[in-house]
Amino acid sequence: MRGYFGIGIHGVNKPFNVGNLFRTAHAFGASFVYTVDAQYTKRKGNKADTSKSLEHTPFYAFPTLEDMLLPKGCQLVGVELTEDAIELPSFRHPTQAAYILGPERSNLPQSTIDRCDHIIKIPMKFCVNVGVAGALVMYDRVQSMGRFAPRPVRAGGPTEELPTQTSHGSPIFRKGSPFEESPPGVPEKWDE
């Protein structure tokens, strides 16, 4: 899969659910995890984070939203149940993305929503815990951006093989390049 993603939470109510979110992020291959304006301790989170993800995935603890730094080109994607949010099955994930979820028992602050490039929602009747919401978003990202055989029309597994990945071939050099091959019998340019 091309690109990268990170996932984090603005505020923390239940550290065990954040530990679960970070463990799931580790399993889905997140490039980084983070918190914003949150009191999160590795000790409490490790009770749910059985993979000890913070030993394998970079972790950033931003004291405030203003302190949050993302890599250049990385788009911030808020996950929140709002009227105008894009429903997850209709969302095209950015190649470079950082997803941010709100704390349980509360919503993403308006200042965070204003900073987001996109707001998405999971089509459901009410909010689920942050670990489940994050897992659904990451699964959708992997499913929509990964390389998988097409789904069959009928129930069951794929009936078609996954097409072989095309090779990019050997490099093509422009004329005058010192690496361009010389015709047989002609000395190399740098040997002249």
Automatic annotation (TrEMBL):
<dbReference type="InterPro" id="IPR029028">
    <property type="entry name" value="Alpha/beta_knot_MTases"/>
</dbReference>
<feature type="domain" description="tRNA/rRNA methyltransferase SpoU type">
    <location>
        <begin position="9"/>
        <end position="139"/>
    </location>
</feature>
<dbReference type="InterPro" id="IPR001537">
    <property type="entry name" value="SpoU_MeTrfase"/>
</dbReference>
<feature type="region of interest" description="Disordered">
    <location>
        <begin position="150"/>
        <end position="192"/>
    </location>
</feature>
<dbReference type="GO" id="GO:0003723">
    <property type="term" value="F:RNA binding"/>
</dbReference>
<dbReference type="Pfam" id="PF00588">
    <property type="entry name" value="SpoU_methylase"/>
</dbReference>
<dbReference type="GO" id="GO:0032259">
    <property type="term" value="P:methylation"/>
</dbReference>
<keyword id="KW-0489">Methyltransferase</keyword>
<dbReference type="GO" id="GO:0008173">
    <property type="term" value="F:RNA methyltransferase activity"/>
</dbReference>
<keyword id="KW-0808">Transferase</keyword>
<protein>
    <submittedName>
        <fullName>rRNA methyltransferase</fullName>
    </submittedName>
</protein>
<dbReference type="GO" id="GO:0006396">
    <property type="term" value="P:RNA processing"/>
</dbReference>
<dbReference type="InterPro" id="IPR051259">
    <property type="entry name" value="rRNA_Methyltransferase"/>
</dbReference>
<dbReference type="InterPro" id="IPR029026">
    <property type="entry name" value="tRNA_m1G_MTases_N"/>
</dbReference>
